[in-house]
Amino acid sequence: MNSSLPNRRAHGWLLRVVLLAALSLVAVIYQMRFSRDVVQVLWSSQEIARLPFEFQTPPTVYAVQPEADAAGVQNGDQLLAVNGQPFRGMVTLARAVGSSRPGQTLTVTVLRPHERTQDARSMTIRLSGEWRQGVKRETWLLIFVLELLLPAMCLLLGIGAAAVRPMDKLAWLLLVLMLGFTQLLSPHWLAGWASLVRYPAEIYHRIFRMAWPIGMMLFGLYFPHRFAFERRRPWLKWTALAPLILIAVARAVFETGIDENVAAVGWLSGSFVANEAIVQILSFCGAASFLVFLGLEVSHRDERGQPKTPTPAVLGNGSQPNATISSAHCGTAHW
To answer: Which pLDDT tens digit goes with each residue over 1-33?
Structure first.
């Protein structure tokens, strides 16, 4: 019985190392591909065409740029086709614009509100540049730091912590936080990527972007040690985690549908637009809970920096001397 324990631990350690290696490989490949786009912005910014309009909820056109307005596109138009290809989602428009240069033309087919399909009209837009005057020095530096340097440091910290302590759940929570943080630094425009890398990239991006507030909440609960109320009522955290997880999954499905197939998620559009503020507030509360728990931790320490309530758990029985577990072990996350 006792001899099986080391084997079980060895298998657990090996499983986590393999999982870490696979996750690290995905994270590094994703960041390298994203960094390539960033470098293109920094060094070839004048060759990048911008989107002639945006969407509030595809396929309804919103925020029409001057070049699209000059071609006759209006806010509220329904986008039906781009360069002769039926509009399925943001991928259709992004790939068409991404393969063009400023000054080239883009043909769109739109339908005015309350008009019949046979009344659809085609318009030719002469694309404008996203960075017509090039990237300014201060903007160049900001992009370099936020989108190249900081993500690399986050990956190094998160992967390094999990590699040094693969059996420590706090190290894995830190890894989730760091991977999530790299997805929050700036908008990640994935719709223009090739299908082979776009599908796994969308899954990776949305999982960790949505998991970031959840990870913040859990990290606050378990760092530097597990809160006493959480040890007594471990189910309580799920009253907050369950809605966050459900929202994260639903939002990931919705955003993927917006990119790939608008028609498949059209029934979700009204719900997400109407409840966007609630979704944002819940996500913010999940992330802010880390600071709340940190404040509670600080408030329970005396002037010498020691917890007012002893954190070691005492083990023992009538036949053996009592033994203590350090606060580091008490802080191990058990969920």
So the answer is: 555 667 778 888 999 999 999 999 999 999 999
* pTM reported for the whole predicted model: 0.78
Domain spanning 49-126: CATH 1.20.120.140: no
DSSP state, residue 324? E
Q: Do the beta carbons of residue 39 and residue 171 sit within 8 Å?
A: no
Tokens of 136: 């300014």
DSSP secondary structure letter of residue 148:
I
The pairs formed by 139-148 with CB atoms below 8 angstroms and a separation of 24 or more are 140/42, 143/38, 143/41, 143/42, 143/186, 144/42, 146/185, 146/186, 147/34, 147/35, 147/38, 147/185, 147/186, 148/35, 148/38, 148/39
Secondary structure element (H or E) that encloses residue 219, with its range = helix 195-222
Domain ranges for the chain, please list them.
Answer: 16-40+135-299, 49-126
**Rounded-to-integer distance, Cα 242 and Cα 318, Å:** 41
Residue 8's Cβ-count burial label (10 Å; 0-12, 13-18, 19+) is: exposed
Are the C-beta atoms of 53 and 68 separated by less than 8 Å? yes
Dig out the tokens for 290 from the structure: 């880390």
Beta strands in 181-290 (DSSP E): none
* Residue 186, H or E segment: none
What is the per-residue pLDDT across 208-257, written as a single tens digit (0 to 9) for each?
988 888 999 999 888 888 888 888 888 988 988 898 888 888 888 888 88
Beta carbons within 8 Å of 52's beta carbon, 6+ residues apart: 64, 65, 67, 68, 71, 73, 97, 106, 108, 125, 127, 128
pLDDT, tens only, 129-154: 877 666 788 888 988 999 999 999 99
Please choose, from the candidates 221, 217, 224, the residue with its C-alpha nearest in 3D space to the C-alpha of residue 328: 224
Angle at 218 between CA 315 and CA 297, to 5 degrees: 65
